[in-house]
Structure formats: structure tokens, C-alpha cells
TrEMBL record:
Residues 2-127 form the VOC domain. This is VOC family protein. SUPFAM superfamilies: Glyoxalase/Bleomycin resistance protein/Dihydroxybiphenyl dioxygenase. CDD domains: VOC_like.
Length: 127
């Protein structure tokens, strides 16, 4: 068994697609109509055959509440790995991304947290 897709709840699929591709640099793999919404998955540009990130609508009340409570408590919903966190931090700040935590060394790792503009906090990590 292996992980092939992981999902993140978003308030607006179009806005999320724009942010995750144009700002963060992910690549759209699937964008398929699925009822009132779409099955939108993204992959890392360097690993297009790797794990996909599903931009899942938060329309279910439980999903919306889960997303809102994590955000209010400052808890990131997922973590993305980066090679050079300071360089990535500067790149994203230049693109207007708002960080709630600047790069912070914690033992052997450095982390930072930003707002994805779609209802989530995302953590980046350099190991």
C-alpha cells in the first residue's frame, strides 16, 4: 500500500488552483468535472509521477468546521518540503504570501507557516 493522493479542503477551487500553481509552483495534473465541483489534483514540478494533492471543496459542514477551527488555532493542515527555506520564504514573500511564522530553526529542522488564501495554514520545512 502507498499514498497516491492527499487532499486539502479549500473554500474556492478556482482561487486555490491559481494560488497553488501560479504562486507556489505546483503543476495541475487533473481537472475533471465532478458534479457541482471538480476533481483537481496537483503535483510537484520535479516529480510529476509522485503523490497528488487534491483541492477538495469544503462544502460539507464538517469539512468547513474542521478547516475553520484549524486555521483559528494556528494549526497547519499539511507540510511541504523545501531545499532552501530562506530562499523559498523570500520568493513567496515577493509574491505577496503572508507568513504567520517566519523561518524558525527547531533542532535539526527549520519551519515556516503561511496562509494559502483559501482557508488554510501551510507549513514548509527544510530538513
Amino acid at each position: 500500500m502507498k499514498i497516491i493522493i492527499t487532499s486539502i479542503f479549500v473554500q474556492d477551487q478556482d482561487k486555490a488552483l491559481e494560488f497553488y500553481t501560479k504562486t507556489l509552483g505546483f503543476v495541475k495534473k487533473h481537472d475533471v468535472p465532478s458534479g457541482a465541483y471538480r476533481w483537481i489534483t496537483l503535483v510537484s514540478p520535479d516529480e510529476e509521477g509522485s503523490i497528488e494533492l487534491l483541492l477538495e471543496p469544503n462544502e460539507h459542514p464538517a469539512a468547513k468546521e474542521y478547516q475553520e477551527k484549524l486555521f483559528a488555532d494556528g494549526i497547519p493542515v499539511t507540510m511541504f518540503g523545501v531545499t532552501d527555506i530562506d530562499k523559498e520564504y523570500e520568493r513567496l514573500v515577493e509574491k505577496g504570501v503572508k507568513f504567520t511564522m517566519k523561518p524558525t530553526k527547531m533542532g535539526e529542522i527549520t519551519i515556516a507557516v503561511f496562509d494559502d488564501t483559501c482557508g488554510n495554514l501551510i507549513q514548509i520545512i527544510q530538513q
